[in-house]
Amino acid sequence: MYENLFKSIEIKSNTAANHFVAQAMEGNDGAYGGSPSERTINRYRQLARGRWGIVVVEAISILDSSLARINGMILNEKNLDGFKRLVETFKTENPLGIIFFQLTHSGERSGGFSDITTLTPNTQGCRYLSSDELEQIKDAFIKSALLAEAAGADGIDFKMCHGYLGGEILRPRNTRPDKWGGSFENRTRLLRETVSEIQDRLKSKRFILGSRLSLYEGIRGGCGVAGADELIEDLSEMFEVIRLMDTLGMDYVNVSAGIPALTGAITRPTEPSKHLALHHLRYTQSVKQMLQQENLHLRVIGSAYSAYKENAPEIMEEMLVKGYTDFCGFGRQTFADPLTPQKLRAGEKINWCLLCSGCTKLMVSQRNDGCIVYNDYYKAIIKQAT
Ligand SMILES: Cc1cc2nc3c(=O)[nH]c(=O)nc-3n(C[C@H](O)[C@H](O)[C@H](O)COP(=O)(O)O)c2cc1C
Ligand code: SF4
């Protein structure tokens, strides 16, 4: 049963043991200063035990000033040893596991721990980022990617999704008059220049580069529409972004959608909105089809598989057999049961995510967050909070 899920698959010159991806999931439990805490490291130890083919470490800020969560992590020299320890712990537990760091600047979604910055002039409550500051942000992405390699990670996920700065800059609504806005070329400058420089400076030829995109953000002028004043989905430009990623020699695209703070049901469907997850299957399939038709090599990771609960393995198998994706990504299920792939393989009982939004509630209230249904630590926190 499910024989395709557990087949190995190549990504760059690395081999993932299976097609399961533990998507980036912020736990908001870093130590003071943004290093991984014991709790953080333990979470990744558990995922290593769960035998996910790829584990993406949650959004890690490239700067002190770009954090979205009060206990979020920051990838800088000062914290390098902590990240080395996280990777060592993971690899000791699962030497075949692949681990990526997701790198982010929170942009307008930063949690207000310093000034909230924006790309768009006259946005209330936000300071307009200058052209020079964007140059510095590019440099910080490059520096963090090289630190990820130094920490022993197998790759990075350049976060260009979910309304954070990487996504904001791609949008048709980014009509900045300088070199970072307006034309497609300008809006993809951060992606192009960052990736090219990282590639020039990486030590290992095996280091994997990819990006998570919100194919359709669901806002006027957002990613996945045809212009700054459009609201209706039109994926043509996002397909151009994916073609560009391929041309740049990147290795995978992680297909997501929505902006959790604005159109959250699209990103992470809850019980009443669970059918929105079907759009994720369509996005993934259409990206994979385009790549195949054009003979492009990027691997494709799909999102929002937690929404299918115990039917997820069957849907995953179908997506793989039909060639509609390369990997299937789970977010909340990694909180509900970090051992899911290993248990599925062994025929053991799995704690399926109930899509109750408890972990999201904890996260947005800036507490340590995790599963409030199956984990006593988070159960107690949500009780105190309500
Ligand atoms: C508590 C929480 C934290 C999340 N943190 C991140 C993150 O750090 N980076 C990211 O790209 N997505 C993040 N997401 C989105 C998930 O990775 C995933 O895309 C979403 O939950 C939908 O997938 P699922 O249905 O399998 O949960 C988060 C979602 C939740 C609920
Ligand atoms: S708290 Fe609810 S939504 Fe979050 S992982 Fe647990 S069951 Fe799923």
Give a short overview.
It is built from 14 helices and 13 strands. The protein is of the alpha/beta class and 386 residues long. An eight-stranded parallel beta barrel has the order 3-4-6-9-10-11-12-13, surrounded by five helices. The protein has a two-stranded antiparallel sheet with strand order 1-2.
Largest sheet: 8 strands, parallel, barrel
Please provide the ordered H/E string of secondary-structure elements: EEEHEEHEEEHEHHHEHEHHEHEHHHH
CATH class value of the largest domain: Alpha Beta
Distance between termini? 43 Å
Mind telling me the C-alpha Rg?
Answer: 19 Å
Count of domain modules: 2
Average pLDDT over all residues: 96
The molecules bound to the chains, other than polymers, are: flavin mononucleotide, iron/sulfur cluster
The gross shape turns out to be: globular
User: What is the CATH architecture annotation of the largest domain?
Assistant: Alpha-Beta Barrel
Task: Tell me about this structure.
It contains 14 helices and 13 strands. The chain has 386 residues and is an alpha/beta fold. The protein folds into 2 domains: 9-352, Alpha-Beta Barrel (TIM Barrel), CATH 3.20.20.70; 356-386, no CATH class. Helix 10 (312-321) links the parallel strand 12 and strand 13. Helix 2 (80-93) crosses helix 3. The longest helix has 21 residues, at 131-151. The chain is globular and about 55 Å long. The structure holds flavin mononucleotide and iron/sulfur cluster.
